[in-house]
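Exercise (ungraded).
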Amino acid sequence: MTIDDPRRLVRVHAEHVSGVASTDCPGTYPGEDHSWNLDVFKQNLQVKVYRLSDRSCEFDLVGVDASIANALRRILISEVLVPTVAIENVYVWNNTSVVVDEVLSHRLGLVPLNVDPALLEFKDGGDSTDRNTIVFKLNVACSRNPDAAKGETDPDKLYINSNVYSSNLVWDPQGEQADIFNGNSPAPTNSNILLAKLRPGQEIDMELHAIKGLGKEHAKWSPVATASYRLHPYIKIVSPIPPALIPKFKSCFSPGVIQVRKKSFEKEEAYVADSRKESMSREVFRHEEFEGKVELGRVRDWFIFNIESEGPYAPERLLIEAIGVMREKIATLRKSTNALSIEMDTIVNLDADVEMGGT
Amino acid sequence: METTQPATASLLPKISILKNASPDLSAATYVIRNETHTLGNALRWMVMKNPEVEFCGYSVPHPSEENIHIRIQMYDGKSSLTALLKALDDLDDVFRVIHEKYKEDMSKKEYERFHEES
């Protein structure tokens, strides 16, 4: 199936989209077979990893229905069953900042930590021990900077500790933790998260207890920061763009999408160099001179996924975890459906016996 | 925080048939408990891929109850339960194949490796 196949495109117009629903089901087109075929699916499916960093992963999933791609996206956001460690209990000894205790505690809970969950046990309502809890201290007081120039207005220069950052969290090793975490002390993955602002005389003094948990209880324990997909953009220049208008045409798209080429003794020609980069602003449709010259759309079964990981799991591992969760769901339901099927068979057989007895 | 499920949730079966199903199960509505759109929509799509299925649709009857209803109607008085079982097997194949292809492409290491600050 080529990319120009009209059935594969969601059309994008100036003020609406059309052809949104997929039509690849049996019965939609007379004489065509759209029933499930694993070999055909295998042939059409393409998975390609484009970019990978320590924090994010961009890959293409081509040849699946939106319901499948969306299932993976939904699992990544809220159902991945791998644990992480996050702050759960906050003991406030003193907080005279303008951020109230519960708001500050909530912010602290959302700070990603670099702790390997394998090194901790689940607390599960039990007592806090060095096996299941990591303790941080947050003790910051703001004061005037005696060295500040007269007439200074910048709070950073005027005061000391006017900003409380995630880097102010100090790990307090308990029991054997100093040995267990030797060389890899627990700390926030990002040291520049602004937690609160202070003014002279205000102070924060807290003890923070981080425990292991799962994303289904609270999103702070989700190993996935974000997971999203977009459909691959489709741009087709239907009739040539007059050379005088090419710069304007080019500026209607995201940088790098439209390029110009010139064959010898011919006029300059605008062509689509990289439609992947297009942001779909639909700016071309606002100009009369380009009317009917270009078609915009998106490829219905070409999903560009972007998964970000925050915490100890590599981003490329998250899709595998998500697939595992989905297959587990299917297996559980398959088992129960099978049991139901056996149960229904017995009922049907019993009914048949009764009927036979009656005649 | 309470993490355990309510006691009633574990007593009810994962899947059951809503009353008013036809006796031969050629048309039936199934209730699947503790599942959401995640499984509902994907399963609906796979059931619809079966040419013996006349109609398939799913709904989440109430947003704060984790139940889905999936309605299946079959041609020629065939069993909707058989279609459901087939769809589950096929759906598992989909994710198995995606997993295989993902691993395969990952091992080629053709991707661009870049650095990103946390």
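Further reading is listed at the end of the chapter. For now, observe: The beta strands of chain B are 15-17, 27-33, 53-59, 67-74, 112-113. Chain B has three helices and five strands.
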